[in-house]
Amino acid sequence: MVMQSERAQSAKPRRGSKARNSRDSAGYRVFTWLNSTILVILCLIMLYPFVTVLAQSFSSPGAIKAGLVSFWPVDFNIDTYIAVANNGMFWRNYGNTVVYTVVATIIAMILTTSFAYVLSKEHLRGRKVLIGIAIFTMFFNGGIVPNYVLISSLGMKNTMWALVIPGAISVFNLLVMKSFFENLPKDLEEAAQIDGLSWFGIFGRIVLPLSKAVIATMVLFYSVAFWNDWFAAFLYLDKSELFPVTLFLRNLLAGASSAATEGAAASGSTASALSANIQSVTMILTVLPILFVYPFVQRHFVSGIMLGSVKG
Amino acid sequence: MKKNAGKRSWRKSLQRDWQLYALALVPLIFLAIFRYAPMLGNVIAFRRFRPGGNIFGDEWVGLRYVSMFINDPVFWHVFSNTVILGGLTLVVCFPLPILLALLLNEVRKKAFKKVVQSISYLPHFLSIVIIVGMVMQLMSLQGTANQIITAMGGEAIPFLQRAEWFRFIYVGSEVWQTVGWGTILYLAALTTVDSSLYEAAEIDGANRWSQIWHVTLPGIRPTMMTLLILNIGTFLNVGFEKVLLLYNPLTYSTADVISTYLYRVGLVSNNLSYAAAIGLFQAVIGLVMVLSANFISRRVVGASLW
């Protein structure tokens, strides 16, 4: 009996692989082999840019200039790392990114969590209108010029506020959180209500402690987005000591690009090879924290996407 | 009568739920200032705007700025660039995730599938600056692309300074960046395809290919339609930040798109009203395109966004 039911269970999700194998086994085996090969090649292509950037960051400018660097470092050295590490502006901008990411994430979490909680209360009058107000901003936004005018007239240019406030509510994150709150067991909150706890009390003492998982996920989503952002800084900041590291990198790239455009690099000057070195090191150091949190983010992001698309 | 009852229960719910409304207050103020005020700020497309003056402009000028861009040959040039770049991106980047999802769906070894997924999702989480940096290194004179060309006896090409290569580079890097992540919703849809359908097809003598064609593809059709609608709606917003980072004056002739043009006109040359008019035009076209794609797909295949 037990064995039978076990077999029935294990056979179901495999969607009849046995039967199918027997049907077109020869052709199918070729297909499986081909399929795996294609996917392995795809993975190599996906990873190659990282590999070559990493290899360049450890290579000498001469080797890069000669076009010798692809998979492995040539003339292995860490001189460029030392040079970048000694660059005060790089560390200053790196530190700025850390500060901006932390502050922006805190602001975004406060606004998103409290709004999502309100929107999750199905009995609330005007709830539909509030949700509509939020969702409409997904489909129509003011555009870059009016936003620029607004931020300038609020006096936020050349302050960190231009970077940390405007991104505070991501509607996607808001909806994910809302549906998390909707799925919390209702009886706890009802019991607390009978005990005379106010909404503030329920939210702070019952709901938030139960939501640690979703809060952690949202913190990761927001911080990755803020860490990666460069455009707000590009628009609103003029002073290089305020730049985030992404803008530092962008300026390196733009400098190399305009040098190449003016023909300085057309002859293959060392300057461009040297800047390729520095670019690589900066890219590696900028991307490192993202790679570090990636395993966590990826898992939650996938389930978040599902949730958002089912509910959305 | 009815109105009165409405008022009374409003008062009641305010009394009971005022703390909830209080929690919503700051987020609402935020949305009003940072989302809705810029939408209204688009009126400067029809009003003269003085830098440092009223953010909604000083005086009405009617359609002056609209007729300005309609008569601007550069605008039509960047408009057609946008359509070409957006069209290429749509045609190449829309089907590839479907193909990849089908391939992944046929993988039986869970661990292998997971590794492929983790690797292919990774570019989605990188800053666009990093992605452009990688593209620049790969396509530079010393980069991998030119290493291959010179190894085969060709002459190195300064890809990034050649207008005719821009679209290829843009779309290629777009594929690299989005193909893995794009599979997520399809893979989710594939798991919901009823396995008894495959068994039935098998009994009817369908081989693998016809199973894919007749069972798998119809199973993910609603997802395909939804994503197609979304892609069509955002078609004109071709990766603004990426173009801005990737282009240079030598490649403007193919690379310059509406959003980069309005950025230069508005924020670099300070013609804010003119740029706002272009931006509004673009946003309205985008909205019209989502709505019509949605309408058509609801009529034709019965799948729609809302």
From TrEMBL, chain B:
InterPro entries: MetI-like, MetI-like_sf, UgpAE/MalFG_permease. Its main location: membrane. GO terms for cellular component: plasma membrane. The chain crosses the membrane at residues 20-37, 83-104, 125-145, 165-188, 227-247, 272-296. Gene3D superfamilies: MetI-like. One of its GO terms (biological process) is transmembrane transport. Residues 79-293 form the ABC transmembrane type-1 domain. Keywords: Cell membrane, Membrane, Transmembrane, Transmembrane helix, Transport. This is Protein lplB. The lineage of its organism: Bacteria, Bacillati, Actinomycetota, Actinomycetes, Micrococcales.
